[in-house]
Amino acid sequence: MKVDHFEQQKLLELAAEDVALTQLAHRRRTLPEVAAVEAAEETERELSADVVRAETEVKDLGREVRRLESDVDTVRQRAAKDQQRLDSGSATPKEMTNLQHELESLGRRQADLEDQQLELMERLEAAEATLTAAQQGLVEAREARERAEQLRDEALADIADGTGRHESARAAVAGGISAPLLSLYDRIRSQTGTTGAAMLQARACQGCRLELYGNQLAAVRNADPHEVLRCENCWPDPGAHGRVRPVTRFVVEADGGSRGNPGPAGYGALVRDAETGRVLAERAASVGRATNNVAEYGGLVAGLQAALDLDASADVEVRMDSKLVVEQMSGRWQIKHPDMRQLAQQARAIAGRLGSVRYTWVPRAQNGAADALANSAMDGKPVHRDAAAEPSVTESDVQPEEPRTVVTTVTHLLRHGQTEHTPERRYSGRNDLPLSRTGRAEAEAAAARVAELGIEVIVASPLRRTRETAEIVGRVLGLPVELDDDLVELDFGDLEGLTGAEALEKHPLAVRRFMSDLTVAAPGGESIADVSARVARARRRVLDRCAGRSVLLVSHVTPIKLMLAAGLGAGDDVVHRVYLQAASLCTVAWSSDGRTSVRLVNDTAHLR
């Protein structure tokens, strides 16, 4: 095609306007001010939650302080009344003795209440300081968010202003270019995804930045000055090379889920054509026992791999409803979990082999297709489907190798026999009480029952009551006892040795919080969440080291309940809904494919 110098110059001006528009669009997509606003909003949300928690604690402590003030006042009035009667001399000798005893008792009660009141007032003062700091932090966070929004809005306005100016300039320039030349320019730009025209300057094409040599350079020099030439590096001749096509753009939708968190988990992912929305590939598979976040990363890796298999040069937009994964893969949040860090590295390695990859958060309602695939995986129905493959098949249909052998490990969970605390239902955590006579008889009965179960390994908590129970069983079975510190009972701290009523009377607020929130520690002790973390460690060690065997774990109420919760795929709050008698037996089976089965709970038939 031949055009005069004036029109060629117009074409270069048009290319310059398009480059400017492309840069503005890229700047808008990657605007750091937008990320700064999102980070500021997240900080504000966290501090708002801190303020609510602090306000609640201040209100609760204030209420307890006022209650104690009322109790102290009541005791003082009663003591004053008794003292007045004692001083009057009107009481009989017996009544005077009783009054003196009551005054002593009231004095002790008043001192105890005043100690509690002082402790609560100190806690209230600390809580009020925490609230003040949180409120000040929230004010500062709101100001920071407002500043970030102002900077973002200014940047967006600047981009919008620049876009408007360049679009107007582009329209003016395009009006001076002939329709055939403009059509050719637009087609080249669409197919290359870069510029549609560039100048040859100092032997280098300013489009691809590559130098021309030999015949290529000679052809340019010898060409008619009015001829519009083609740079074969930018846009090869389709007749000669047969490989010119538009840039491929994919959308990857990914999700993951866990029934228990951690629990049986699976992921789902699909690849769509970005232009038509047509589904090109679907993937769904189990990841065994894992958390939601690990499963979501599994979906991301599977989706990126499917896109890579379709076209390694494609530009990809990943859409997920996991804010965590999107922010971490975008580089704005750190990745601390080792399993997630490994999967993120795998995802980045795949993304590095694609044309380009960007991450977008979408509401869960817009990620329904990937969510359905993840649920299919958790239901035991894996999917490996490509648009070109007919009929559709599942992963199990396309595996030529023999299926992996599923290994099942059976854990029998034995609670220790009674101690002197057990009949009185006292908090019994880290004490080293021995088994009572009844407890030893219970352990011997349990040993006779366990002898029928084919036990191969015995692992116990190192506390005296569990160690004695395990040693009695070990002598009957002829097996040694291994100790695991992570199987010890919850540390009840200041509640140790108290009955429930005594604990409520001595630490009313602390006990109520401990009983209602899994993350709140007993005063001076541990929380249920703390115990859950170390019991999970013990469980993983046992399942790794004793895979396929029958194991007896001798432990305490809380660790055993948490084992049952994991086996059921339920939350740790199960600890408040299950009763376990001393020397009772529970059984959970764990399969290597992620399935679990709770087979026995609180069996005490051997004690009757």
Characterise this structure.
α2 (32-88) runs antiparallel to α3 (93-174), α12 (437-450) crosses α13 (464-477) and α14 packs across α15. Strands 7-6-3-4-5-8 form a six-stranded mixed beta sheet. Strands 11-10-12-9-13-14 form a six-stranded mixed beta sheet, with helices on both faces. The protein has helices spanning 5-29, 32-88, 93-174, 179-192, 214-222, 238-241, 292-310, 323-329, 338-351, 368-378, 395-398, 437-450, 464-477, 500-506, 508-516, 528-545, 557-568; strands at 200-201, 204-205, 249-258, 263-273, 279-290, 315-320, 356-361, 383-386, 408-415, 457-460, 481-483, 550-555, 585-591, 596-603. The protein is built from 17 helices and 14 strands. The longest helix has 82 residues, at 93-174. The protein is elongated and about 130 Å long. By secondary structure, the chain is of the alpha/beta class.
The whole-number mean of residue pLDDT values reads 85
Distance between the termini: 101 Å
Low-pLDDT residue intervals, each spanning 5 or more residues: 236-246, 388-402
Strand content: 5-15%
Structure summary, number of beta strands: 14
Q: In percent, how helical is the residue content?
A: 40-55%
* Secondary-structure class: alpha/beta
Shape: elongated
Number of contiguous helices: 17
The radius of gyration computed from the alpha-carbon positions, rounded to a whole number of angstroms, is 36 Å
What is the spatial order of strands in the main beta sheet? Answer: 7-6-3-4-5-8
Major sheet: size, sense and barrel closure?
6 strands, mixed
